């Protein structure tokens, strides 16, 4: 049985003070919630403060990106060692907002030079995944198609290629540890959540690709999340799907009560029938 994982991706939101206020309110809301891995991914500047507050709790700290080198002349970058130093155990890698194609209607990004500012590629994603695992960080690897790729019927191929390239060169043991987030680009921050059955289908496809590449034993261990416009209202339907092991949550993770509701809904939905020890009582 896979333990579901729910991740808050705060993106470029919250000062240190705001992050601390969130944690202070959030902790009591999820006290006693078991059977679900909860991860908070604040911006880099808030990692130390949030990490201090999460010490001794059942909530993990994650970063939103990393650079693959341990140290050196890489202005503006953050190394895996720096992340573990402040208590991170997870890191998001290859988010579509960092890959070299935004698929977003931001007028500034119509300029091709600005569009590629972050320029994450399948190759850099792969290097980051290796670096994370080497330093004991669990990578949350994002894959997903743009709207035009979906409309042209290329969803499965895009996901297959991104997944295969991200995991290149890893051992079976390493693959078993990663978290995959299926995040259709068109669903991120748009309010257009992917239909739960379709999200389940793509998560199932990801598991079958993992099985082809690394064997069924490994593919059954990997936790596969859905991400893109998750809300407290639509999470019950998503969490009820067999292949979806949790969520990567952006906008709805910025408020303690809505994120806590999402966490509790997932934990409750994924309980094994035999496990009555952590029943969620609303
Ligand atoms: P969203 O973002 O929930 O605001 O759509 C999800 C993500 O980008 O990880």
Secondary structure layout plus pairing:
Blueprint lengths: L4 E5 L6 H14 L7 E5 L5 H8 L4 E5 L16 H6 L2 E6 L18 H4 L6 H13 L3 E6 L3 H5 L3 H12 L5 H6 L1 E4 L13 H19 L1 H6 L1 E5 L7 H5 L6 E4 L6 H14 L13
Parallel strand pairs: 1-2, 1-8, 2-3, 3-4, 4-5, 5-6, 6-7, 7-8
Helix pairs in contact: 1-2, 1-12, 7-9
The structure holds 2-phosphoglycolic acid.
Largest sheet: 8 strands, parallel, barrel
How many DSSP E strands?
Answer: 8
Number of discrete helical segments? 12
Radius of gyration: 18 Å
Q: What percent of residues adopt helix (DSSP H or I)?
A: 25-40%
Bound molecules: 2-phosphoglycolic acid
Structure described in brief:
This protein has 282 residues and is α/β, with parallel strands linked by helices. The protein has helices at residues 16-29, 47-54, 80-85, 112-115, 122-134, 147-151, 155-166, 172-177, 196-214, 216-221, 235-239, 256-269, and strands spanning 5-9, 37-41, 59-63, 88-93, 138-143, 179-182, 223-227, 246-249.
